[in-house]
């Protein structure tokens, strides 16, 4: 797990006030980290073009030019007037060293974006938008200083955004780099230490980035067990029975001892799943919503979930009349995709927004929902999954675009249901099922377009 911050200004200030470091010292470390990243990948003499903006992001780029000049063929481009005191100081030093400042970007091995960082305060002008498009079209290795220009600190993107192969971010990981829109822009991310170790630079934060190694599988360690030792998941099987079948198969594969589809009518199901009209007494977790449609009257649904067993809720349940009732429960995991989350937000009176508005401020909307419903676990699907409960938040950035396919969400609900049935807390069930889901997708050996729900289900066999 790693910490995520919505801003790092206060962390920088602590370096000055508490540790006696200076802005210049921090900047030198920032530039040195980028120089190290270039040296690691490119030999002496390679061509490096650094595009520097008016503020301290530009100053970082100017300091990088000084560090590389002599060993590398460095050129600096200054599309805007150099403004901040640190940028002017670094610029003077470059002039003394004779680093070439050129008007246009020429073909190069490494292209560095040091135009804007955390200080991007208003929409990009047309000149910078054109420049970023030109930079993106070049074949060079692209390095972003701190954050790619065009990515705002909240995670939304301007009309154009620099598409980096590598972002060297300063001091700590910023939350905005893990929005869905950011996923196209940031590339690989490394953190530059700025003169003190990260553990001293960082403070406590409610936002955590999940790492692949955080996955805790439902491994079976006790030998003296039987199927009843691993829980019994009920999956409410509605109009589109395929969705419930996928969830049920996923749950069985992910360790649930028994899985029963709770259906109104007899449905053709795989032989390893069971089927019942009423909820068997041993069911200790229920998945509801996937393919539900209008099949059940409210009373029929209530009969299937009418005690306080943990629930995982997906898809059609967010538009269902029973939503308000369900949200009062203590142990519940909600797994909306962005469109479903906008429905959830408006039906709970938290916010009225469309998908575009939601995606521009995913983190804020998740915080608002979790404040209003602190017992519920929310898992907001997307290119980067956000999981929240109360004032704790996690981001799983490990998914790939292979998961963008019908049925992927049903598999995830099944995995969550399996872990609920096996005794995980709702928060842990959401975290570890999500990590297993993304890990199974990453390990799929075919092309990304080819991944099916069955591949994901098979994928958890060998994690
Ligand atoms: N703090 C530290 O200790 C450390 C900070 N570090 C580095 O500093 C970076 C933050 O620096 P920063 O605050 O100077 O902001 P930055 O992103 O350079 O932009 C500000 C400038 O851009 C301008 N401007 C803004 N938007 C614009 C627009 N749309 N179109 C045109 N102009 C626009 C804005 O102009 P103004 O709004 O003032 O008119 C101002 O001139 C941070 O990302 C990291 O790289 C590291 O060295 C480590 C230590
Ligand atoms: K930048």
UniProtKB/TrEMBL annotation:
- Native species of this protein? Sulfurimonas diazotrophicus
Read off the InterPro entries from this record: Carbohydrate_kinase_pred_CS (IPR017953), CARKD (IPR000631), Nnr (IPR030677), Ribokinase-like (IPR029056), YjeF_N_dom (IPR004443), YjeF_N_dom_sf (IPR036652)
SUPFAM superfamilies the record matches: Ribokinase-like (SSF53613), YjeF N-terminal domain-like (SSF64153)
According to the record's subunit comment, the protein's assembly and interactions are: Homotetramer.
Domain YjeF N-terminal as annotated: residue spans: 8-202
Protein name, entry field: Bifunctional NAD(P)H-hydrate repair enzyme
UniProt family annotation: Belongs to the NnrD/CARKD family.
Cofactor comment in the record? Binds 1 potassium ion per subunit.
């Amino acid at each position: 797990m790693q910490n995520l911050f919505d801003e790092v200004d206060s962390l920088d200030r602590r370096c000055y006030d508490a540790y006696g470091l200076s802005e210049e010292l921090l900047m030198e470390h920032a530039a040195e980290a980028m120089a190290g990243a270039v040296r690691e990948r490119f030999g002496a003499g390679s061509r490096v073009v650094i595009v520097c903006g008016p503020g301290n992001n530009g100053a970082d780029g100017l300091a990088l030019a000084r560090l590389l000049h002599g060993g590398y063929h460095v050129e600096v481009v200054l599309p805007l007037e150099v403004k901040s005191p640190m940028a002017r100081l670094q610029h003077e030093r470059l002039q003394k060293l004779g680093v070439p400042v050129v008007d246009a970007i020429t073909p190069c091995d490494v292209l560095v974006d040091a135009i804007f960082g955390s200080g991007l305060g208003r929409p990009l002008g047309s000149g910078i938008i054109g420049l970023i498009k030109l930079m993106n079209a070049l074949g060079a290795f692209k390095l972003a200083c701190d954050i790619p220009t065009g990515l705002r600190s909240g995670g939304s993107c301007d009309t154009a955004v620099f598409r980096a192969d590598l972002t060297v971010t300063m001091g700590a990981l910023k939350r905005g780099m893990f929005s869905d829109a950011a996923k196209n822009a940031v590339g690989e991310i490394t953190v530059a230490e700025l003169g003190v170790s990260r553990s001293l630079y960082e403070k406590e934060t409610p936002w955590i980035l999940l790492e692949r190694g955080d996955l805790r599988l439902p491994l079976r360690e006790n030998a003296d067990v039987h199927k009843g030792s691993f829980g019994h998941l009920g999956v409410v099987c509605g109009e589109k029975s395929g969705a419930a079948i996928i969830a049920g198969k996923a749950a069985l594969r992910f360790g649930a001892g028994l899985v029963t589809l709770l259906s109104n009518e007899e449905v053709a199901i795989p032989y390893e799943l069971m089927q019942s009209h009423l909820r068997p007494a041993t069911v200790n977790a229920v998945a509801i919503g996937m393919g539900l449609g209008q099949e059940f009257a409210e009373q029929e649904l209530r009969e299937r979930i009418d005690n306080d067993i943990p629930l995982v809720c997906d898809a059609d349940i967010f538009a269902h009349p029973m939503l308000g009732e369900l949200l009062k429960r203590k142990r519940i995991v909600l797994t909306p995709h962005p469109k479903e989350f906008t429905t959830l937000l408006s039906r709970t009176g938290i916010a009225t927004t469309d998908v575009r508005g939601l995606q521009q401020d995913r983190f804020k909307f998740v915080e608002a929902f979790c404040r209003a419903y602190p017992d519920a676990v929310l898992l907001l699907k997307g290119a980067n999954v956000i999981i929240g409960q109360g004032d704790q938040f996690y981001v799983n950035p490990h998914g790939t675009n292979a998961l963008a396919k019908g049925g992927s969400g049903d598999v995830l609900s099944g995995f969550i249901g399996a872990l609920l049935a096996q005794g995980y807390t709702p928060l842990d069930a959401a975290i570890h099922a999500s990590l297993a889901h993304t890990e199974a997708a990453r390990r799929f050996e075919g092309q990304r377009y080819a991944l099916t729900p069955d591949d994901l289900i098979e994928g958890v066999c060998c994690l």
